[in-house]
Design brief:
heterodimer, A: mainly beta, 7-stranded mixed β-sheet, B: 4-stranded antiparallel β-sheet
Chain lengths: 116, 116
């Protein structure tokens, strides 16, 4: 089973709202990722969690706050977003971030976020 | 610095034609990994293949084949007898141990349109 699930599929929020994106995987993977993807662009890495600890934060604004409650779950808390934050947010997981031989990332279907 | 170039922004072919998507990469490392992902209109990124730098054997999986040539730093992807379901954006990506710490360096993507 190579499934990564994400909820919700679509989200519309105002600039003063607080919302959360959720991601789950049951493949026993120890690395989980958040990406942001704008239309017609490749994904941009936002955060990496390895073994439930934040290991990479790609200079993401503090209005995005990641959380990894356990090895299967990854959340992205959103607060005071701007219209330019509208994008597809993708979650991914991989077996071990420090073992390049098993490095392919498996992606979820994404959450299409619109900030109004 | 690492870089992945997919020079073809968009390719349009008629169903059953063969099509090749080009990928050229740059890295100073001798150990690296190359990937292809498919992103259909639904948005989910689907892992297709991983190849490490020490394995130059070409790979065939059904109608898909990959040609890895270190001499030209290329990792091209061919779809034989294309089908409408192959319509998607295809990304080539590189992972090495230098600045990126094995995170993925993405090409810009090639949009493939298969017309019935």
């Amino acid at each position: 089973d190579t499934e990564v699930t994400q909820t919700p599929k679509h989200l519309v929020m105002g600039m003063t709202n607080k919302k959360s994106l959720k991601c789950e995987q049951h493949m026993g993977h120890r690395a989980m990722y958040w990406y942001k993807q704008k239309a017609k662009k490749p994904p941009e890495l936002m955060f990496v969690y390895s073994y439930e600890k934040l290991s990479i934060n790609e200079s993401v604004p503090s209005r995005f706050s990641p959380e990894c409650p356990n090895s299967s779950l990854l959340n992205l808390h959103l607060h005071a977003l701007q219209p330019e934050d509208s994008a597809l947010y993708l979650c991914a997981s991989s077996q071990d971030p420090f073992d390049p031989g098993e490095y392919e990332q498996y992606f979820g279907p994404g959450t299409r976020l619109t900030v109004t | 610095a690492q870089k992945v170039t997919q020079a073809q922004t968009e390719i349009s072919v008629v169903e059953k034609e063969d099509v090749t998507l080009d990928c050229v990469y740059e890295t100073r490392d001798t150990t690296y990994y190359l990937f292809w992902y498919k992103q259909p209109p639904s948005g989910e990124l689907v892992f297709l293949i991983r190849r490490n730098s020490f394995d130059e054997q070409n790979e065939i999986s059904g109608r898909y084949s990959w040609n890895f040539q270190k001499s030209t730093s290329s990792f091209n992807f061919t779809i034989t007898a294309s089908q409408v379901v192959d319509s998607a954006v295809y990304f080539c990506a590189l992972s090495d141990g230098s600045d990126s710490n094995y995170q993925l360096i993405w090409g810009a993507g090639t949009k493939l349109i298969i017309k019935p």
